[in-house]
Amino acid sequence: MAGLLDDGGIWERSFILPEHKEAMKRQSREATRKTRPVLDVQELEQIQLVLSESFHEHKRITLRLYDEYEDVEISGIVTVIQTYRREIKFATTPGEWQWIRIDDILGVYL
Question: One Pfam family this chain carries (predicted)?
Answer without folding.
Answer: YolD
